[in-house]
Structures are given as C-alpha cells and as structure tokens.
Amino acid sequence: MEIWTFLIGLLGFCARLAHVSSDLDLEGLEQVSASFEHAHPLDILRWAGDTFGDDLLVTASFGDAVLAHLVNEAIPDAEIVLLDTGYLFAETVWFAERLRRDLRINLRVVHPLGDVEPDQWQHDPDGCCAARKVEPLERALAGRRAWITGLRRTDSPTRTDAPIVHLDPFRGVTKINPLATWSDADVADYSEVERIPAHPLSDRGYGSVGCWPCTRPVAPGEDPRSGRWSGTTKTECGLHVGGGERRGASTSGLRGRGTP
Ligand code: SF4
Q1: How far is the CA of 139 from the centre of ligand 1 (A)?
Q2: How many CB atoms lie within 10 A of CB 9?
C-alpha cells in the first residue's frame, strides 16, 4: 500500500472517531447499552433513529426478514443495505426484493468493486470476505455515524459478549445490535406473531444462509451455523470485530441465521 494512501486512510479514521466521540463518549455508550439489556428491539431502534437520523445505516443478510421488519416498523425511512457478494443464493436476492416490494423497505444493494478476484473463495476465503463483504460495508458506511446490524449473542461463541450499543473502533461508527439479546425462540415468536415470510431456503435445511460456495444445509439437530465455512476453522467474515465480538476458530455450539 502506498504510504500516502495509508496516511489518508488513518486521518479519515481519526476524523470519524472524533466525530463519534462528540456524540457519546465510550462511557456514555456503555451506559446506553446497559440500559437496553431488557428493552424490546423496537425501542432500541427508535432510540437509534432519534439519535442518528439520516446518519444511520442498516445492514441485513436477509437470511430472515426479522431485522428488516423491525426497522421498517421503528424507522421506516432507514436505508437497509444488502451486501451482495456476487455469490449470494438467488433465493436471498429474490427474498430481499420481495420484502422491498411487500414491506416497502428502503433497500439498497451494494456490490463489490469491479476488480475483485474471481473465485478467491476457493483458495483465500478471508481475502474473499474482505473484498466482497468488508470493503463494500466500509464504502456503504462512509459519511454515516451509526451502523445497525442483526447480530445476536446466540449466533456463535465469538458473539456471546456482544454489546447492544458500542463503538466500532475500526470504522469509527456507533454500532447498534438491537437483536443482541434475542434467542432463536424470540425470533420465531416475532416471526409468527407478525406473520413474517420465511427465507425460501429455511425449509430446505439451511439454518444459516450465507454465500452459496460457503454454506451447506445442516442435518436436524445440528447447529444451524455449522453449515457456514463447514470443514474449515473460519467462523466470521470480518464484518463483526472490535466490540464484545471476538475472533474465534471454534465452530461448536453455533446457532442463528440472521447475520453474515
Ligand atoms: S462467504 Fe465465501 S463466497 Fe462469500 S465472501 Fe466470504 S469467502 Fe467469499
């Protein structure tokens, strides 16, 4: 990397960090997060909308429609981004478009840059995720102050300590995980009560839906997220780092379908 490119990036990061710090300092974020431990995701989302307004960005993997539905209820104008890696299941893209039409969500599909390496997942999955997920996320977040995700603590052992609100130190934005405390049962209950449509692959054994080269269906009783990067030590794509989320290699005890 050119030294000037690195320095410009570093300056941009410091500027974003200073901007966030002027909203709420780290202690303030911790207090807000603690106050939301027993709050409904709708209340957390309304707080986020009131606090950050148009500076909010939501990302959803559309493995289910729960986050999109909640966001649409609480902050209907919020932009919901689908990071289309180029390797998503056709069913996921169809599902997101159906929700755009039926729920009138404010959907934006973000693609990788044009010069990404084809089929990098075959020999360098970390590099593939960096180019097809992390870079597009950071491009989408440019100029925003807050990022809402569908991350849940029950997704994996690397996410069990995830705060509800915290600073993402790598991107200089306030990260909000309104579903952090929800269990699989909570998600199922909300989906049933609100009659939310299911992802087309959910009844075909796909407990967690990611990119087709890196996702396999799971057997009944198997941890749903064990179908992601199956047979490797990879458990995270690089989007969720720097909070209570930890990088980890274990694939035991993984659950959840909602986040990349
Ligand atoms: S999940 Fe697989 S195909 Fe998708 S971006 Fe990561 S390595 Fe590439």
Answers
A1: 18
A2: 11
In sequence order, what are the residues at sequence separation of 6 or more whose Cβ sits closer than 8 angstroms to the Cβ of residue 38?
181
- Answer whether 144 contacts ligand 1 (Cβ < 6 A): no
Q: How far apart are CA 235 and CA 62, in angstroms?
A: 19
Global model pTM greater than 0.70: yes
- Distance CA(10)–CA(6), nearest Å, equals 6
Tokens of 11: 């300056």
155 in Cβ contact with 256 (< 8 Å):
yes
Separation of alpha carbons 21 and 23, rounded Å:
5
User: Can you tell me whether residue 83 is helix, strand or coil?
Assistant: strand
Identify the helix (H) or strand (E) that includes residue 166. Answer: strand 165-168
Q: Report pLDDT digits (tens) over 161-208.
A: 999 999 998 999 999 999 999 999 999 999 999 999 999 999 999 988
Residue range 75-131, pLDDT digits in tens:
999 999 999 999 999 999 999 999 999 999 999 999 999 999 999 999 999 999 999
Whether 129 lines ligand 1, by a CB cut-off of 6 Å, is: yes
Dihedral in degrees, nearest 10, Cα atoms 219, 152, 247, 63: 50
- Angle at which helix 41-52 crosses helix 66-74, to 10 degrees, equals 50
**What's the helix, strand, coil split of the chain in %, to 5?**
45, 10, 45
Cα distance from N-terminal residue to C-terminal residue, the chain? 28
Q: Which fold has domain 27-227?
A: Rossmann fold (3.40.50)
Instruction: Name which residue sits closest to atom 2 of ligand 1, judged by CA.
Output: 214
Tokens of 117: 């390496």
